[in-house]
Design a protein that fits this description.
443 residues, alpha/beta, Rossmann fold, 8-stranded mixed sheet, 6-stranded parallel sheet, 16 strands
Length: 443
């Protein structure tokens, strides 16, 4: 149930994190005012539609609207004035490897202006990912300057990093394995802990800078884990070993665990790439060269091109060949293409003068904004595979695991499969008459 003192929460920034945070707080019983400068997003939410593809979000939007627990507006100041706590969830992308603070500076300044005419204590929660020290050096001073109020007395600031996986974000919010609360005074930290009191989770209290660093360290480790298993998979292929068997065995070591030990193309999305780049940049700025993290990005950058190599092993030259690319989003159950392997693979295929047809259950709309008329867009898997010389699996959507092999073989010009996610059993497709190449597969 809502905290006795905090009944209405404003959420500034309606990307994946902001929308999921809004609907989940509404589900917990809070009145939520969500805010974005994008009028289209605001209108969609008020109409009961989700601006993003994320399981359960559309249903939660409808439920919250029906219960009068959610409203979307474009006025940050009004949202802050009419709430007791504000979550800042705007994006912090990287530009040339450095964190871009433009959005968070703008949001922070508007939050401060909303506090200018408020007398009651207000809690500000930074969920946006920022380099350690940014909240104290940028966010708090901007709020104080634009509100003419003092942090710790008139308002409190907490850092509450998010660990929401796209496609599983709602479940992650409801069932967090830990909640990090970074604050420099108990009043702010206690207020945020009360907001999350109904969530059955371990709460870790730290200072603000430590909470910021936990987010980056967490993502850096997970990204390293992915690049590690991809490096091992590349070695396994050369020496005739199945990388899946290796990953399964080492994943049983309780000190390692199986999660993310699945060889594939690369990591992508809105967090790992930008956060690793930002952490490298911050390290360089204080005179430290993070060799391992730089190598993690380099392995990740090259990994998608392994699929081009495998396709050439099957087809020889790709010039004039029809290649069907299945999967465009960086992972299944999302339409997000940020830093997706497809953004490297498709331009490489075009450079090789292949004829490229693409299909994804959700990301076609985003792909058309990126590739425009450079590729053909299929409406379904079978449409994409008509006349194809090669099927290239880039994203592990469930429907690609259950392909009707006999029907597909009849549609394709040559029954060749290049599997970037190892979701198809190589022995099964070979028995059906396909030629197969896969990441980490021993051949």
């Amino acid at each position: 149930m809502p905290d006795d003192k905090i009944k209405t929460i404003s959420v500034v920034g309606l990307g994946h994190v902001g929308i999921v945070t809004s609907v989940c707080l509404a589900e917990m019983g809070y009145n939520v005012i969500c805010v974005d400068i994008d009028k289209n997003k605001v209108e969609l939410i008020n109409e009961g539609k989700s601006p993003i593809f994320e399981p359960e979000v559309p249903e939660l939007i409808t439920k919250a609207l029906n219960q009068n627990k959610l409203v979307a507006i474009t006025d940050v100041q009004r949202a802050v004035t009419n709430s007791e706590a504000t979550f800042i969830t705007v994006g912090t992308p990287t530009i040339k490897g450095k964190i871009d603070l433009k959005a968070i500076k703008s949001a922070t300044e508007m939050v401060g202006k909303g506090l200018a005419d408020k007398n009651p204590y207000h809690l500000v929660v930074v969920k946006s990912t920022v380099i350690p020290g940014m909240t104290e050096r940028v966010v708090i001073p901007l709020i104080e300057e634009s509100s003419r109020k003092s942090e710790g007395t008139d308002f409190g600031v907490c850092v509450n990093p998010e660990f929401l996986r796209e496609s599983d974000a709602v479940q992650d919010f409801r069932n967090p394995d830990r909640i990090i609360i970074g604050s420099n005074n108990d009043k702010a930290g206690d207020a945020l802990e009360r907001i999350f009191s109904d969530l059955n989770s371990l709460v870790i209290r730290t200072d603000i800078r430590t909470a910021e660093m936990i987010k980056y360290a967490n993502n850096a480790f997970l990204a390293t884990k992915i690049s590690f298993i991809n490096e091992i998979a590349n070695i396994c292929k050369e020496i005739g070993v199945d990388a899946n068997n290796v990953a399964e065995a080492i994943g049983l070591d309780f000190r390692i665990g199986p999660y993310l030990l699945r060889a594939g193309l690369s990591f992508g999305g809105s967090c790992f790439p930008k956060d690793i780049q930002a952490l490298i940049s911050a390290s360089n700025s204080v005179g430290y060269n993070p060799i391992l993290l730089t190598s993690v990005l380099e392995v990740n950058r090259k990994q998608p091109l392994k699929l081009i190599e495998l396709a050439k092993e099957l087809l020889g030259s790709l010039n004039g060949k029809n290649v069907a690319v299945l999967g465009l989003s960086f992972k299944p159950n999302t339409d997000d293409m940020r830093e997706a392997p497809s953004l490297t693979i498709i331009p490489a295929l075009i450079e090789e003068k292949a004829n490229v047809t693409v299909y994804d259950p959700e990301a076609i709309r985003n792909a058309k904004k990126i590739f425009r008329k450079k590729v053909k867009y299929a409406s379904n898997t079978l449409d994409a595979l008509k006349g194809a010389d090669c099927m290239m699996i880039v994203t592990e959507w469930d429907e690609f695991e259950k392909l009707p092999l006999a029907e597909i073989k009849g549609l394709m010009r040559t029954p060749f499969i290049v599997d970037g996610r190892r979701i198809i059993n190589p022995e099964t497709v070979k028995r059906e008459g396909f030629k197969y190449k896969g990441i980490g597969w021993k051949d």
